[in-house]
Amino acid sequence: MTRPSLLSPPQTSALVILRILIGWHFLYEGVLKLYSPSWTAKGYLLSATYMESFFHWMASDSMISTIDTLNITALLLVGVGLILGFKTQVASLIGIGLLLLYYFAHPPFPGYPQGPAEGSYWIINKNLIEAAALVVIFLFPTSISFGLERFFTKKEIQTQS
């Protein structure tokens, strides 16, 4: 017998939709970068306004091809995992890590110059909001109710004493 869900069907549906939408965003970004032969994270990393030495090291000639490959691969894996509902907790953690790296490269902190961002916010930006949404997806995994993971999850057997 499966464990009863703590969420109502509409709550589960809302979380599934959130998971798929975030997955689509990650997958789209990964595919866009994969099929754009001139794309590289080098400019973004070199323009970092916070923790510059770390991001400049990532942009170094010896690291940038590895960083570009890891970025694209992570974006694709997170996107596919979230959309298909497979290993969503792992995908969520990887996605949170990526988003926090993007956030700290160009944080919207007072007194820091704004980098290539989609708006000028104070402390909060879309990367931080999407990372917080992935924390929710991590804490309330929906892939057992809607996703491929349900085919790999053993049903709990209730034993009678």
UniProtKB/TrEMBL annotation:
Bilayer topology term: Multi-pass membrane protein
Keywords: Membrane, Transmembrane, Transmembrane helix
Compartment(s) of residence: Membrane
Entry-linked Pfam families: DoxX
Keyword Transmembrane (UniProt): yes
Superkingdom: Bacteria
Ranges that cross the membrane: 12-28, 63-83, 90-109, 129-148
Entry annotated with the keyword Transmembrane: yes
Cellular component annotations (GO), alphabetically ordered: membrane
Signal sequence residues: none
Protein's name according to its UniProt entry: Thiosulfate dehydrogenase [quinone] large subunit
Record organism: Algoriphagus alkaliphilus
